[in-house]
């Protein structure tokens, strides 16, 4: 049989190892909090699986590293060694190191580096021995002898363990010529014979060049289930005409796989594991759909008007099934937010230690599911907000005491579904936003003229202003907001929003609202000339019909309109997209006020058709990137409508003004 | 062609074992832990069971005990896949009723050779 390529299992191995490392980390942190020994078993199992897999799939460096970690865990597991903070620390560092190794494995880089090697030595030293510098020194092969006498008598119960003497005799026959004598002395009379027991013994003469170790290997599995002796037969050596090399060599050790040389591009081919129940549900739905389709099929022949009601019922059923099917298919890409939340216990622990704060982390709603694409992008903003909460929100124990609170601050992450959105709240019971500090800083930076008339909400909004603070700033009085503008932009790019509630002295709550999926958006269909455009509903403030007196033209050809005490720029989509709108007169069309990139603009369109769900297709994949357009969708009549990218349009507008 | 039950909590290892054995024409059923393996063994008769030692829910050694307690699994070969060269773990498996073991890491050829050994 040809060699099986193991590289096809690499992706699965990487994925489950990543999960294993996450589980190890979580269990180590729980141990740190004083968890029970069951956790040690969990950690051991994860390390053990990674070790076995990495050895099997051709990553010897990783196997060598995990071997040391596993030995240490083995001692903890057997209670030969007490668990203390320094060991947990060492194992946590090992988890980090392994994560790095996996990243390198995926990109095909060498796995071990000076750091991993040092940590491996440290692990080895912790169990009181020096790490072998090379793996598995090969034992020198014992000299082969020409003839052996083997006495073999299984114990009565050997057969019950699934070992058949016939197998061993067959294997011996592969080593050379056999002369076998059965020894039936202990065979009971037939009436008393229990066929599930062994009653025979054998004396076997083996002629062939085999080492004692190879022969003993045949009986390896039954060494304590039989009487066995293996001795060389002394006899005058008949000169063999051709001196062969040793007939049987021990199995060669696994050659390093050629995976490294012929590595396919280690691109992130991402996959999703789907629960079988979800798949079953889909199959059921498809079945329903097929039934509906065959029912509708009956209308093709001899249709008359009295069957119209039945047809309508059929179509309604089709619509229901299609909707359910769509929801279920979307559900396949839905993953619990736990995978993002899981990185926080470690981060919170490290960061609070560094800053000398005591933080209790509560994670709520970890099983809340959201689309994989959203999940992959939400991590960074959350990390940012959690960092901020520990850095600027929660106080040191002495400050908390001074404020009449307990020493330990609470940081809470809660995920939940609200309608068609997912909401993640990051709340802390820290100092809250420091109004004076924020206003002062905004004044310094010229973001506001005076802070007197600002409401608390407006002050809170200030921290999202670009340039409100620089990342280099780490004054403990900073009123929060290291790069909060970036956080907001990331969330808005996902079609979501960020809001703050804060009470000075009591704490803050950051609320991130996200769409469940990026594959479908709610939009408003607008006509410009003969073209349809979809404006994402989430960015629309309202639609207004303008009167001439609300409009101003500024030098350079830009237009502004008056809306709620502010002057906003007008973007005429017909100009932006050169699609020849029919209504040059602004009073006859509509202006859709939208918000993007933190600023508001008015989109001038001919008319609004209505609200609809749009399935987003990538324009880049089918054509190329187009400025001001985030994607396209296919309308009911089969025509294509472009989805307007508000943030992109705002940027275009800014450039036009600057030009 | 034999009916083989492959038991391992690691999807990649299990996948490798199942894929290799199917390639050699065997009919392979997979189970993620000892408990699921025992449940599966109650429903059908396997000619050979290959199982990892360390697994959640039910480990390999307990699984061997459970299987050996079933009359129809007396004498059916059960091999432990183990990285632990500690003889005590091997012996523990033996004492529980395992037929033998296959030491990780193994490559597909070694796996097939061992399976062939046992099935004859």
Automatic annotation (TrEMBL), chain A:
The modification Phosphohistidine is found at residue 48. Its EC number is 2.7.13.3. Transmembrane segments: none annotated. Residues 267-518 form the Histidine kinase domain. It comes from the Bacteria. One of its GO terms (molecular function) is phosphorelay sensor kinase activity. Residues 2-105 form the HPt domain. Keywords: ATP-binding, Chemotaxis, Kinase, Nucleotide-binding, Phosphoprotein, Transferase, Two-component regulatory system. GO terms for cellular component: cytoplasm. CDD domains: CheA_reg, HATPase_CheA-like, HPT. GO terms for biological process: chemotaxis. Residues 520-655 form the CheW-like domain. It catalyses: ATP + protein L-histidine = ADP + protein N-phospho-L-histidine. It holds the Pfam family Hpt. Involved in the transmission of sensory signals from the chemoreceptors to the flagellar motors. CheA is autophosphorylated; it can transfer its phosphate group to either CheB or CheY. PANTHER family: CHEMOTAXIS PROTEIN CHEA, SENSOR HISTIDINE KINASE CHEA. This is Chemotaxis protein CheA. The lineage of its organism: Bacteria, Pseudomonadati, Pseudomonadota, Gammaproteobacteria, Lysobacterales.
From TrEMBL, chain B:
It comes from the Bacteria. Keywords: Phosphoprotein. Residues 3-119 form the Response regulatory domain. GO terms for biological process: phosphorelay signal transduction system. Gene3D superfamilies: 3.40.50.2300. It holds the Pfam family Response_reg. SUPFAM superfamilies: CheY-like. This is Response regulator. It comes from Dyella soli.
């Amino acid at each position: 049989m040809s060699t099986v390529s193991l590289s096809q299992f690499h992706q699965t191995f990487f994925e489950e190892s990543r999960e294993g490392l996450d589980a190890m980390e979580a269990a180590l942190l729980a141990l740190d909090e004083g968890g029970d020994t069951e956790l040690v078993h969990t950690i051991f199992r994860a390390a053990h699986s990674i070790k076995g897999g990495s050895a099997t799939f051709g990553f010897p460096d990783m196997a060598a590293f995990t071997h040391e970690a596993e030995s240490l865990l083995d001692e903890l597991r057997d209670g030969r060694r007490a668990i203390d903070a320094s060991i947990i620390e060492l194992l946590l560092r090992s988890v980090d190191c392994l994560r790095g190794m996996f990243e390198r494995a995926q990109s095909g880089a060498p796995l071990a580096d000076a750091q991993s090697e040092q940590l491996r030595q440290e692990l080895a030293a912790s169990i009181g021995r020096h790490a072998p510098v090379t793996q598995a020194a090969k034992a020198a092969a014992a000299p082969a002898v020409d003839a052996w006498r083997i006495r073999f008598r299984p114990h009565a119960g050997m057969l019950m363990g699934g070992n058949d003497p016939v197998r061993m005799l067959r294997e011996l026959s592969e080593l050379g010529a056999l002369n076998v004598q059965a020894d039936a002395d202990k065979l009971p009379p037939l009436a008393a014979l229990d066929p599930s027991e062994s009653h025979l013994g054998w004396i076997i003469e083996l002629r062939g060049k085999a080492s004692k170790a190879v022969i003993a290997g045949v009986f390896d599995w039954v060494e304590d289930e039989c009487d066995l002796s293996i001795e060389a037969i002394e006899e005058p050596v008949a000169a063999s005409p051709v001196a062969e090399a040793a007939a049987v060599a021990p199995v060669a050790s696994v050659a390093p796989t050629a995976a490294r040389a012929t590595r396919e591009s280690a691109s992130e081919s991402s996959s999703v594991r789907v629960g079988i129940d979800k798949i079953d549900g889909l199959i059921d739905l498809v079945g329903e759909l097929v039934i509906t389709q065959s029912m509708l099929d009956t209308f093709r022949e001899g249709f008359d008007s009295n069957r119209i009601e039945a047809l309508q019922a059929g179509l309604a059923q089709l619509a229901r099934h299609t909707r359910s099917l769509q929801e279920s298919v979307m559900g396949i890409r839905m993953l619990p937010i736990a995978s993002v939340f899981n990185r926080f216990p470690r981060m919170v622990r490290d960061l609070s230690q560094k800053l000398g704060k005591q933080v209790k982390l509560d994670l709520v709603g970890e099983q809340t599911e959201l689309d994989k694409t959203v999940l992959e992008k939400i991590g960074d903003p959350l990390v940012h907000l959690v960092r901020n909460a520990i850095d600027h929100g929660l106080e040191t124990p002495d400050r908390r005491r001074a404020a009449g609170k307990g020493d330990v601050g609470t940081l809470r992450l809660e995920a939940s579904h609200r309608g068609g959105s997912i909401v993640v709240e990051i709340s802390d019971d820290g100092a809250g936003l420091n109004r004076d500090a924020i206003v002062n800083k905004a004044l310094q930076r010229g973001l506001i003229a005076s802070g007197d008339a600002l409401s608390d909400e407006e002050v809170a909004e200030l921290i999202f202003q670009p340039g409100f603070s620089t990342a280099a700033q780490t004054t403990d009085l900073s009123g929060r907001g290291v790069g909060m503008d970036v956080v907001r932009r990331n969330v808005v790019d996902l079609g979501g929003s960020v809001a703050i509630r804060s009470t000075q002295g009591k704490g803050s709550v950051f609320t991130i609202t996200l769409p469940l999926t990026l594959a479908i958006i709610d939009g408003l269909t607008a006509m410009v000339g003969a073209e349809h455009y979809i404006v994402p509903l989430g960015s629309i403030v309202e639609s207004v019909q303008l009167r001439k007196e609300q409009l101003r033209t500024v030098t350079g050809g830009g237009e502004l309109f008056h809306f709620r005490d502010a002057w906003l720029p007008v973007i005429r989509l017909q100009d932006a997209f050169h699609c020849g709108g029919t209504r040059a007169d602004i009073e006859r069309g509509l202006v859709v006020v939208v918000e993007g990139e933190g600023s508001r603009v008015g989109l001038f369109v001919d008319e609004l058709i209505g609200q609809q769900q749009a399935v987003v297709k990538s324009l880049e994949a089918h054509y190329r990137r187009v400025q001001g357009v985030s994607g396209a969708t296919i309308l009911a009549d089969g025509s294509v409508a472009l989805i307007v990218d508000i943030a992109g349009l705002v940027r275009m507008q800014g450039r036009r003004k600057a030009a | 062609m034999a009916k083989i039950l492959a038991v391992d909590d690691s999807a990649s290892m299990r996948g490798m074992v199942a894929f290799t054995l199917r390639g050699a024409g065997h009919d392979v059923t997979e189970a993620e832990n000892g408990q699921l393996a025992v449940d599966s063994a109650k429903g059908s008769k396997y000619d050979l069971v290959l199982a990892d030692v360390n697994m959640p829910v039910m480990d390999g050694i307990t699984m061997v005990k459970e299987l050996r307690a079933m009359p129809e699994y007396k004498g059916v070969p059960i091999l432990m896949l183990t990285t632990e060269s500690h003889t005590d773990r091997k012996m523990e498996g033996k004492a529980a009723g395992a037929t033998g073991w296959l030491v990780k890491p193994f490559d597909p050829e070694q796996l097939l050779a061992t399976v062939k050994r046992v099935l004859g």
